[in-house]
Specification:
The chain has 650 residues and is α/β, with parallel strands linked by helices. The chain has 20 helices and 17 strands. Among the domains are: 80 residues, no CATH class; 195 residues, Spore Coat Polysaccharide Biosynthesis Protein SpsA, Chain A. A seven-stranded mixed beta sheet has the order 11-10-9-12-15-14-16.
Length: 650
C-alpha cells in the first residue's frame, strides 16, 4: 500500500462562463394600456424629431414629408419599405403569430394617400412588432425549461455538470473511483429537485440550470454546484458486461437501493435474451456473455432441511459456543488488551499451522527492521501456532472454545478460517479498542512509517472514517461498490463498527455459502453505510504487485513512500513465499518453515519468549529468483515465467 495521497484535480473556474446572452429584464409589454402609452410616447417623439429635421432642411411645407425618404417608390407609384424588413414570422402585439407579408399587404392599402400622422403610426407599430418579435425569440430560447414543470416539477427542476474527479475530491465518498479526466466518464450530473437548491452565487449559471439555452448542460465546479444542497443522494453506476443498459429514475417514495431488471430467464439462469421481457434479478446476476453470464453471484444459503452439512446448520453449531462463552472470553481479553494496547488500539492477526511460515516472516522482518511488536495480538487457531507466535515474542490469545472446531493445516476451504477472522476483530471492538487487522502475508517496511500511526493521525482526512481498507483491485460485481481488501483494514471502535462485525458474525452462513469472507463483508459495508451512516474508506493502493509494473519497479528501487507490502492476489502459500523471496522480503530460515516449535533444531524443548528469534530470523533478507515475469529486487531474467506469455519484469 502506498502512502495515501489526496490528489486535487486542475482547478475549475469558481463560476461558469455565461451560457446565454445577458438580458435586462424578463418583463414583456403585454398590457394593452401600457402598450398604448408606449405607442403614444414613441409617436410624439417621432413627430417632434420629424418636424425639427424637416424644418432644418427647409422642407416643412414641401410636397413630401421626411418619412417619404424611408420608402422607395414602385413602378406603380406605391411606396414599399426597404429590403430586409419583410421576412419571417413574428408575434403580434396581442401575442399571436402573424405572417409579416400578409400584415403588410393589409396595412399598405392606400399608403399613397396616408397622412404623415398615419405613416408615423404605421412605422411605429411596425418597429414595435419587430422589437417584440426579437424579444419573443430570445424568450423562447432562454425560457424553455429543461424539465416540464407540469409533469416533473416535484422531482426534476434543473441539472448541471461537474467533473467526476472534482466531486470525488471535494466529498470523498470513500469507495475507490477511477480517474475521469480525459475519459468518456469525465463528467457527473447533479439534478436539482427544488429551485431553492440551485446555485445562487452566479445568476447566469442559475438560469442555465433551469432553462435550455441551446448550449448544452452547464458545467461548473462541485462546490458551486452543491452550495445550496441541504442533502445529496449519490448514485454510482457502471455497465457490467457492457450490455445495452438503461437507467430509470422514477419519482416515488424514497429508496436507497437500486433495482436490477434484465431480459433473462431466471429459472434456467440464462444469459441475456433480447426477446424476453425485463424481469427483476439479483444485483449479482452476470450480465455479460462470458463465463459469468447467467450466473448469480449472490444466492441464499441452502435450506437447513438439507441436512447437517447445510451452511445454515453449521453456522448455528458455530454460534452456540460463541454465545455460551462470550462473557468469559471478553473478561480474559480485557486484561490482555489493557496491557498491550497503545493509544487505545491493537494490531490483530489470526493464523493456523498451515500459514505459520508467513506469520514467522512477518515477525522476523519487523524485528530486523526495528519495529516494536508489543501491541500485536495473535489469535492462533491451534496450539502449534500459539507456541510459534509466543516463541517469536508475540502476545497470543487462544480461544479454545471457538477455535478448536476449525481445521488445521492450510485450510482446504477458504471459508473455514474466515470464521476466526471475524471473531478476532469483533472481540477488541466490543471492549472499546480500535483494531488494525492484517493477514500474515503482510510486511511492514520502515519504523518511521508505522501503519498504526498512519491511521491514528487525527489531522488526516482519514480521521472521519469508521473503517479504512486497502484496495483489493477486484472490480467485479461480487465486490462492488467498495472492492475492500479484508486482509488489511483499520476499524475505529464505535457503535457502528461493533454492529458491523456483529452482523458479519451473524452472516457466517453466507461466508460458508459464498466461500468468501470478503464478499460478505463488502455487502455489509454497503448496507451499513446506507442504513446506519457507517463511513467507509478504501485506499487507492493494495493490488499493485501483479498489475502495476511501473509502481513495482519504483518499489523495488526504494523510490516509494509505502508503509506496508501485502502479498495479496496470490494463489497459494508456496507462491507467496517465492514472490517474497525474490522481492527481498523473506527473513525465515529454511529450518523454521512449516515446522512446529518442538521440531525446530537449536532450541530443544525451550518455550521461553523470543526463543525462535535467533534460529529462525535471518539478519538479512534471503533472496532467490523464481519467476522472471514477477517483480524482483534483482533481475531474474533466466528464470521461467509463471504466467502464460509473461514478459520479464526487468
Amino acid at each position: 500500500m502506498g502512502k495515501e495521497i489526496f490528489n486535487t484535480m486542475t482547478s475549475l473556474p469558481l463560476r461558469s462562463a455565461p451560457t446565454f446572452p445577458q438580458r435586462q429584464s424578463n418583463e414583456r409589454p403585454r398590457n394593452p394600456e401600457a402598450l398604448h402609452i408606449i405607442v403614444v410616447s414613441v409617436r410624439a417623439t417621432f413627430v417632434f424629431l420629424l418636424c425639427v429635421s424637416s424644418y432644418l432642411a427647409g422642407s416643412i411645407f414641401g410636397h413630401h414629408s421626411s418619412l417619404d425618404s424611408y420608402y422607395s417608390i414602385d413602378v406603380d407609384g406605391r411606396r414599399r419599405p426597404p429590403p430586409g424588413t419583410s421576412s419571417g414570422v413574428i408575434l403580434s402585439l396581442n401575442g399571436k403569430a402573424s405572417d409579416v407579408s400578409k400584415k403588410r399587404s393589409r396595412d399598405d392599402v392606400g399608403c399613397n394617400n396616408m397622412t404623415d400622422e398615419r405613416r408615423i403610426d404605421f412605422h411605429v407599430r411596425r418597429e414595435l412588432e419587430r422589437h417584440v418579435h426579437r424579444m419573443e425569440n430570445a424568450e423562447s430560447s432562454s425560457r424553455r425549461r429543461r424539465f416540464p414543470s407540469s409533469s416533473m416539477g416535484k422531482s426534476f427542476n434543473g441539472v448541471i455538470r461537474v467533473k467526476k474527479d472534482d466531486i470525488n475530491d471535494l466529498l470523498d465518498f470513500g469507495n475507490p473511483a477511477s480517474r475521469g479526466g480525459g475519459t468518456p466518464e469525465e463528467d457527473a450530473l447533479v439534478f436539482y429537485q427544488r429551485e431553492g437548491a440551485f446555485p445562487c452565487s452566479d445568476v447566469l449559471l442559475r438560469h442555465a440550470v433551469e432553462y435550455d439555452d441551446g448550449m448544452g448542460i452547464p458545467l461548473t465546479d462541485s462546490e458551486t454546484a452543491t452550495e445550496n444542497c441541504d442533502s445529496l443522494n449519490v448514485i454510482f453506476t457502471g455497465n457490467p458486461g457492457q450490455t445495452r443498459q438503461c437507467t430509470a429514475i422514477v419519482p416515488n417514495f424514497e429508496s436507497y437501493h437500486v433495482q436490477r431488471w434484465m431480459k433473462v430467464d431466471t429459472v434456467r439462469t440464462t444469459p441475456i435474451k433480447p426477446e424476453l421481457p425485463l424481469v427483476p434479478v439479483s444485483r449479482g446476476y452476470g450480465a455479460g456473455r462470458g463465463g459469468t453470464a447467467g450466473r448469480g453471484h449472490f444466492y441464499s444459503p441452502p435450506s437447513p432441511s438439507d441436512g447437517k452439512l447445510s451452511p445454515v446448520k453449521r453456522h448455528w453449531s458455530r454460534l452456540l459456543p460463541f454465545f455460551q462463552n462470550i462473557d468469559s472470553i471478553l473478561e480474559d481479553l480485557s486484561a490482555i488488551l489493557k496491557r498491550i494496547a497503545r493509544n487505545n488500539a491493537v494490531v490483530v492477526l489470526t493464523c493456523n499451522m498451515g500459514q505459520s511460515a508467513l506469520l514467522v516472516n512477518f515477525a522476523c522482518s519487523a524485528r530486523r527492521r526495528g519495529f516494536d511488536l508489543g501491541n500485536i495480538l495473535v489469535f492462533p487457531s491451534d496450539v502449534e501456532t500459539k507456541e510459534l507466535a509466543e516463541g517469536l515474542g508475540l502476545t497470543t490469545y487462544y480461544d479454545v472454545k471457538n477455535m478448536d472446531i476449525l481445521p488445521k493445516g492450510e485450510a482446504r476451504r477458504y471459508g473455514a478460517m474466515m470464521y476466526a477472522k471475524v471473531l478476532c476483530v469483533l472481540y477488541p471492538l466490543l471492549l472499546g479498542y480500535d483494531v488494525l487487522f492484517q493477514d500474515v502475508d503482510v510486511v511492514w517496511l520502515t519504523p518511521d512509517r508505522d501503519p498504526l500511526q498512519f491511521f491514528q493521525d487525527e489531522s488526516s482526512k482519514l480521521s472521519r472514517f469508521d473503517v479504512i481498507f486497502q484496495h483489493d483491485g477486484a472490480n467485479s460485481i461480487r465486490y462492488a461498490p467498495y472492492s475492500a481488501n479484508s486482509g488489511f483494514y483499520y476499524a475505529r471502535a464505535n457503535k457502528k463498527t461493533q454492529y458491523l462485525f456483529t452482523s458479519l458474525l451473524y452472516h457466517s452462513d453466507l461466508i460458508m455459502t459464498w466461500d468468501s469472507h470478503q464478499q460478505v463483508l463488502v455487502q455489509l459495508l454497503s448496507e451499513h453505510s446506507s442504513l446506519f451512516g457507517l463511513n467507509v474508506k478504501v485506499l487507492s493502493r493494495g493490488y499493485h504487485y501483479h498489475r502495476k509494473h511501473p509502481f513495482m519497479m519504483k518499489f523495488v528501487k526504494g523510490e516509494t513512500e509505502s508503509y506496508i507490502f501485502h502479498m495479496s492476489w496470490t494463489k497459494n502459500k508456496n507462491d507467496k513465499v517465492f514472490f517474497l523471496r525474490q522481492l527481498g522480503e523473506w527473513y525465515v530460515t529454511d529450518k523454521c518453515i512449516d515446522k512446529p516449535m518442538a521440531k525446530i533444531s537449536g532450541i530443544g524443548s525451550s518455550s521461553r519468549n523470543e526463543a525462535l528469534l535467533l534460529p529462525c530470523c535471518a539478519t538479512e533478507p534471503i533472496f532467490s529468483c523464481h519467476y522472471r515475469d514477477k517483480p524482483s529486487k534483482l533481475p531474474c531474467k533466466s528464470s521461467a515465467s509463471i504466467d502464460p506469455s509473461g514478459r520479464s519484469f526487468w
